[in-house]
Amino acid sequence: MAKLRQNTLVVVTDSEKALFLRNLTDHEDPNFEVEDQEEQDNPSDAEQSANRRGRMPDTGEGHRSAMDDTDWHELAKERFAKDLSDILYKEAHAGNFDHLVIAASPQVLGVLREEMHSEVLDRLVADIPKTLTNHPVDEIEKIVKAELDNS
User: Fold this and answer.
1) Which CATH superfamily is domain 9-38+70-150 in?
2) Which of 29, 91, 141, 142 could bridge to 96 as Cys pair (CB 3.0-4.6 Å)?
3) How far is CA 6 from the centre of its chain?
4) Residues 58, 64: contact at Cβ < 8 Å?
Protein backbone atom coordinates (compact mmCIF):
# COMPACT_ATOMS: atom_id res chain seq x y z
CA MET A 1 0.00 0.00 0.00
CA ALA A 2 1.35 3.41 -1.01
CA LYS A 3 1.45 6.09 1.66
CA LEU A 4 1.68 9.84 1.59
CA ARG A 5 4.88 11.07 3.14
CA GLN A 6 5.86 14.52 4.19
CA ASN A 7 6.93 16.58 1.14
CA THR A 8 5.21 14.25 -1.35
CA LEU A 9 4.37 16.17 -4.50
CA VAL A 10 0.74 15.63 -5.51
CA VAL A 11 -0.18 16.66 -9.05
CA VAL A 12 -3.88 16.96 -9.84
CA THR A 13 -4.44 17.44 -13.54
CA ASP A 14 -6.84 17.15 -16.40
CA SER A 15 -6.00 17.88 -20.01
CA GLU A 16 -5.98 21.65 -19.59
CA LYS A 17 -4.78 22.51 -16.10
CA ALA A 18 -2.55 21.13 -13.39
CA LEU A 19 -2.39 21.85 -9.70
CA PHE A 20 0.87 21.17 -7.85
CA LEU A 21 0.33 20.38 -4.18
CA ARG A 22 2.84 19.54 -1.45
CA ASN A 23 1.90 17.32 1.49
CA LEU A 24 3.13 19.13 4.61
CA THR A 25 2.35 16.30 7.05
CA ASP A 26 1.95 12.54 6.78
CA HIS A 27 -0.46 9.91 5.50
CA GLU A 28 -2.72 9.83 8.55
CA ASP A 29 -3.61 13.52 8.36
CA PRO A 30 -2.65 14.90 4.94
CA ASN A 31 -2.33 18.65 4.61
CA PHE A 32 -1.78 19.82 1.04
CA GLU A 33 -0.40 23.25 0.24
CA VAL A 34 -0.77 24.70 -3.26
CA GLU A 35 2.68 25.31 -4.71
CA ASP A 36 1.87 26.14 -8.30
CA GLN A 37 -0.61 25.70 -11.10
CA GLU A 38 -0.39 25.51 -14.85
CA GLU A 39 -3.25 26.26 -17.18
CA GLN A 40 -3.55 26.01 -20.92
CA ASP A 41 -5.71 28.28 -23.02
CA ASN A 42 -7.41 25.72 -25.24
CA PRO A 43 -10.42 27.05 -27.15
CA SER A 44 -12.84 24.63 -28.79
CA ASP A 45 -11.80 23.01 -32.04
CA ALA A 46 -14.30 25.14 -33.98
CA GLU A 47 -12.63 28.30 -32.69
CA GLN A 48 -9.18 27.01 -33.67
CA SER A 49 -10.02 25.69 -37.14
CA ALA A 50 -9.51 28.11 -39.97
CA ASN A 51 -11.25 26.27 -42.78
CA ARG A 52 -14.13 23.96 -43.30
CA ARG A 53 -13.38 20.28 -43.88
CA GLY A 54 -11.84 19.32 -47.17
CA ARG A 55 -13.39 17.01 -49.73
CA MET A 56 -11.70 14.63 -52.12
CA PRO A 57 -12.80 12.75 -55.22
CA ASP A 58 -14.24 9.33 -54.52
CA THR A 59 -14.68 6.35 -56.80
CA GLY A 60 -17.56 6.91 -59.15
CA GLU A 61 -18.45 9.87 -61.25
CA GLY A 62 -19.27 13.03 -59.33
CA HIS A 63 -18.76 11.40 -55.91
CA ARG A 64 -16.83 13.24 -53.24
CA SER A 65 -16.06 12.28 -49.63
CA ALA A 66 -15.45 14.54 -46.66
CA MET A 67 -12.03 14.36 -45.05
CA ASP A 68 -11.42 14.47 -41.33
CA ASP A 69 -9.98 17.73 -40.18
CA THR A 70 -7.27 18.05 -37.57
CA ASP A 71 -8.76 18.26 -34.09
CA TRP A 72 -6.69 21.13 -32.72
CA HIS A 73 -8.41 20.97 -29.35
CA GLU A 74 -7.42 17.30 -28.85
CA LEU A 75 -3.88 17.96 -30.04
CA ALA A 76 -3.55 20.76 -27.49
CA LYS A 77 -4.71 18.39 -24.73
CA GLU A 78 -2.03 15.86 -25.66
CA ARG A 79 0.56 18.62 -25.87
CA PHE A 80 -0.40 19.77 -22.37
CA ALA A 81 0.24 16.28 -20.96
CA LYS A 82 3.62 16.19 -22.73
CA ASP A 83 4.49 19.64 -21.38
CA LEU A 84 3.51 18.48 -17.89
CA SER A 85 5.83 15.48 -18.18
CA ASP A 86 8.66 17.89 -19.09
CA ILE A 87 7.90 20.03 -16.04
CA LEU A 88 7.95 16.96 -13.80
CA TYR A 89 11.27 15.87 -15.28
CA LYS A 90 12.84 19.27 -14.60
CA GLU A 91 11.49 19.26 -11.03
CA ALA A 92 12.73 15.71 -10.39
CA HIS A 93 16.12 16.48 -11.90
CA ALA A 94 16.41 19.55 -9.66
CA GLY A 95 15.65 17.37 -6.61
CA ASN A 96 12.39 19.15 -5.80
CA PHE A 97 10.54 15.94 -4.94
CA ASP A 98 11.34 12.37 -3.95
CA HIS A 99 7.76 11.06 -3.96
CA LEU A 100 5.04 11.80 -6.48
CA VAL A 101 1.31 11.10 -6.65
CA ILE A 102 -0.63 11.97 -9.80
CA ALA A 103 -4.42 12.23 -9.99
CA ALA A 104 -5.72 12.55 -13.56
CA SER A 105 -8.26 11.15 -15.97
CA PRO A 106 -7.29 7.74 -17.41
CA GLN A 107 -6.64 9.31 -20.83
CA VAL A 108 -4.24 11.91 -19.40
CA LEU A 109 -2.52 9.27 -17.25
CA GLY A 110 -1.96 7.20 -20.38
CA VAL A 111 -0.25 10.05 -22.22
CA LEU A 112 1.75 10.98 -19.11
CA ARG A 113 2.97 7.40 -18.60
CA GLU A 114 4.21 7.31 -22.21
CA GLU A 115 5.97 10.64 -21.87
CA MET A 116 7.40 10.51 -18.34
CA HIS A 117 11.13 10.10 -17.97
CA SER A 118 12.44 7.22 -15.86
CA GLU A 119 13.70 9.75 -13.31
CA VAL A 120 10.08 10.77 -12.69
CA LEU A 121 8.67 7.23 -12.86
CA ASP A 122 11.16 6.13 -10.18
CA ARG A 123 9.57 8.67 -7.82
CA LEU A 124 5.95 7.85 -8.70
CA VAL A 125 4.29 6.40 -5.62
CA ALA A 126 0.77 6.17 -7.07
CA ASP A 127 -1.42 7.33 -9.89
CA ILE A 128 -5.11 7.85 -9.32
CA PRO A 129 -7.37 7.62 -12.39
CA LYS A 130 -9.77 10.40 -11.34
CA THR A 131 -10.31 13.97 -12.43
CA LEU A 132 -10.09 16.09 -9.28
CA THR A 133 -9.17 19.49 -10.72
CA ASN A 134 -12.45 21.13 -9.75
CA HIS A 135 -12.42 19.83 -6.16
CA PRO A 136 -11.35 22.01 -3.21
CA VAL A 137 -7.98 21.11 -1.70
CA ASP A 138 -9.47 19.62 1.49
CA GLU A 139 -11.57 17.24 -0.64
CA ILE A 140 -8.52 16.31 -2.71
CA GLU A 141 -6.69 15.43 0.53
CA LYS A 142 -9.49 13.06 1.58
CA ILE A 143 -9.87 11.44 -1.85
CA VAL A 144 -6.13 10.89 -2.35
CA LYS A 145 -5.77 9.38 1.14
CA ALA A 146 -8.78 7.08 0.58
CA GLU A 147 -7.48 5.97 -2.83
CA LEU A 148 -4.06 5.16 -1.38
CA ASP A 149 -5.65 3.29 1.54
CA ASN A 150 -7.60 1.15 -0.95
CA SER A 151 -4.66 0.40 -3.25
Assistant:
1) eRF1 domain 2 (3.30.420.60)
2) 91
3) 22
4) yes
